[in-house]
TrEMBL record:
Entry GO MF terms: transmembrane transporter activity
Protein name (Swiss-Prot/TrEMBL): Branched-chain amino acid ABC transporter permease
CDD domains per UniProt: TM_PBP1_LivH_like
Pfam families reported for this sequence: BPD_transp_2
Entry keyword set: Amino-acid transport, Cell membrane, Membrane, Transmembrane, Transmembrane helix, Transport
Family: Belongs to the binding-protein-dependent transport system permease family. LivHM subfamily.
A GO CC term attached to the entry: plasma membrane
Classification via PANTHER family: ABC TRANSPORTER ATP-BINDING PROTEIN, BRANCHED-CHAIN AMINO ACID TRANSPORT SYSTEM PERMEASE PROTEIN LIVH
Domain of life: Bacteria
GO process annotations (BP): amino acid transport
Coiled-coil segments on the chain, per record: none
Membrane topology: Multi-pass membrane protein
Naturally occurring in which organism (per UniProt): Paracoccus aestuariivivens
Cellular compartments annotated: Cell membrane
Length: 295
């Protein structure tokens, strides 16, 4: 049996895969947070609840609506995004001119309300969600068996992250979005509907969280608490990458997921805190984050 640093290769690669999968969810969720904070300057504490909503909407589409996984993967983020757009237009938009603390408190309360509603109807225990038949089974790589669905999660997450980065950084719409955060009055003077851009931005961030929830549903139990268990880690990832940095959210999400996975091999006792230790070190050495801009 091949050994690396006294660790069997199969065990090492297995934990690396787990790290990549967790990193995929960290990247998608932190990307949504970074988009919302970078363009709206709102710390969206409801992000974990929107992640949970994506998983539950997909579950309901599958079990009640009779829709297959592939349609649910598209429809669930759209439904959650529309819900988020309605929340932003009717309530959150009224808080933009106030202290950012009000936005944080509002989204925190929204998260509690959503989670409480689903706990009332579904309880705290998880619900099963089957992976699609096309992605069942595993591939023998020689040194390990790679579950096809878990490989799909990594590929799909990376593709969506790259697409969003290109949208924000390389398109005219992305340029309007970035300009609207810097000088909304000037952008509106050029005929751009800034309130609509802000609504679309919040819907995009929530849709990314819901997309991650749909991907996570066949791997983890669909539970009302699945978002609250993850959101603190995701906030740490965003801080390490740099608040509002799109590229930082993506790179740091995958990187910290891999570091967490490898820590479970070499020092399992520290695996639950390694991300927070890294966050503390980064805040001491570079308060703006690895990819953030110094004020």
């Amino acid at each position: 049996m091949t050994m690396i640093f006294g660790i069997p290769l199969q065990a090492l690669m297995g934990q690396l895969l787990v790290g990549l999968i967790n990193g995929s969810f960290y990247a998608l969720l932190s990307l949504g947070l970074a988009v919302i904070f970078g363009l709206l300057r709102v710390i969206n504490f409801a992000h974990g609840a929107q992640y949970m909503l994506g998983a539950f909407v997909a579950l309901l589409l599958l079990t009640v609506g009779g829709i297959n996984y592939w349609f649910a993967l598209i429809l669930a983020p759209l439904i959650v995004g529309l819900f988020a757009a309605a929340i932003e237009r009717s309530m959150l938009s009224r808080l933009y001119k106030l202290d950012p603390l009000y936005g944080l408190l509002f989204t925190f309360g929204l998260a509690l309300a959503i989670e409480g509603t689903f706990r009332y109807f579904y309880g705290a225990s998880g619900k099963p969600y089957a992976a699609p038949p096309q992605l069942s089974g595993a591939v023998n790589l020689g040194f390990m068996f790679l579950p096809i669905y878990r490989g799909w999660v990594v590929v799909a997450s990376l593709a969506v992250c790259i697409a969003v980065w290109l949208l924000i950084e390389k398109t005219k719409l992305g340029a309007y979005l970035r300009a609207a955060t810097e000088n909304p009055v000037l952008v509106q003077a050029f005929g751009v509907n800034v309130p609509l851009l802000l609504t679309l931005t919040y819907a995009l961030g929530a849709g990314l969280a819901a997309f991650a929830g749909v991907l996570a549903a066949p791997i983890y139990q669909v539970s009302p608490l699945m978002g609250s268990n993850l959101i603190i880690i995701v906030f740490a990832v965003v801080v390490v990458g740099g608040m509002g940095s799109i590229l930082g959210a993506i790179v740091t999400g995958y990187l910290l997921g891999v570091v967490e996975g490898l820590t479970k091999v070499f020092y399992p006792e520290a695996s639950n805190i390694v991300i927070f230790v890294i966050m503390a070190i980064v805040l001491i050495l570079r308060p703006a984050g690895l990819f953030g801009k110094e004020a």
